[in-house]
Amino acid sequence: MNTGKNCFFSVTRLILIPQKQSAVVFLSVFLKNRFWSIDNDPPPFPTNSSNRAFIDLILKHSEEDVKIWPHRYEYRLRITLGPGGDLMLTSRIRNMNTDGKPFSFTFAYHTYFAVTDISEVRVEGLETLDYLDNLKNRERFTEQGDAITFESEIDRVYLSTPTKIAILDHERKRTFVLRKDGLPDAVVWNPWDKKAKAMPDFGDDEFKRMLCVEAACIEKPITLKPGEEWKGRQELSAVPSSYCSGQLDPRRALQSG
């Protein structure tokens, strides 16, 4: 992983669940290693793409896929870049089964934000919410702080989250704004030092300069009958932060747009 000077980058993490719920097939690496095709005839998208550059991609099941997960799907992804650098990802997943069987899945945009110093970062918009702590066997807790700050490893799924979340980078005086639709949950993750050293594709000190905040649908899996389609959207932007009373003020970012 090398964030360099980029503000953020994102990949899709899709977890497909067999109907009997006896096991979970994790296909995130599988999807990332697939070749997507350019979709030359996409259906109308609900988002306004005027004055924006965009590309439509499509991923369909193959016969090899069916051996791993016995369902047929169609995944359409529109990647949109605004004139100010805003990045929008719009996903549409359709059940293409011809045998009448539904399928279920959970979903997350695996988004890494480049930050100056993780110890000087705050996440706002998730206060007072319940979360599942993956470091404690997904035990449920309620967020007690007025913001999320970072002093050790964190791996949480916040539930029933708002449509806007702010990630405040104190040193750079920059706020990332994450807007989302169709994705009620949010994952917050940083591996910290010990886990970072154990990850082969992660630099020993890179945990200090990154934070993962994912728009997600995890607590309640999405179920599609044949012919049904699910839609989800995430938009990322970076705006200057104002500084007041010793802490960054994200109110303009959360209230705008």
Can you put this structure into words, describing what you see?
Keywords: Isomerase. One of its GO terms (biological process) is carbohydrate metabolic process. Pfam families: Aldose_epim (PF01263). It catalyses: alpha-D-glucose 6-phosphate = beta-D-glucose 6-phosphate. The protein has helices spanning 28-32, 63-68, 192-198, 251-255; strands spanning 8-17, 25-26, 37-38, 53-60, 73-81, 87-95, 103-114, 121-124, 130-133, 139-142, 154-158, 164-169, 174-181, 185-190, 210-224, 229-240, 242-244, 247-249. The protein is mainly beta and 257 residues long. It has one domain: Distorted Sandwich (Beta-galactosidase, Chain A, domain 5), CATH 2.70.98.10. The strands form three sheets. Strands 2-1-7-15-14-11-9-10 form an eight-stranded antiparallel sheet. The chain is globular and about 50 Å long.
Task: Give a summary of the structure in a few sentences.
The chain is mainly beta and 257 residues long. It contains 4 helices and 18 strands.
Give the key terms.
EC 5.1.3.15; 4 helices; mainly beta; Beta-galactosidase, Chain A, domain 5; 257 residues; 47% strand; carbohydrate binding
Using the CA coordinates, give the radius of gyration: 19 Å
The geometry reads as globular
The largest sheet, given as strand count, sense and whether it forms a barrel, is: 8 strands, antiparallel
Mean pLDDT: 83
CATH class: Mainly Beta
From the coordinates shown, what is the CATH architecture? Answer: Distorted Sandwich
Name the poorly predicted regions.
18-27, 243-248
Number of helices: 4
Strand content: over 45%
What is the straight-line distance between the termini? 32 Å
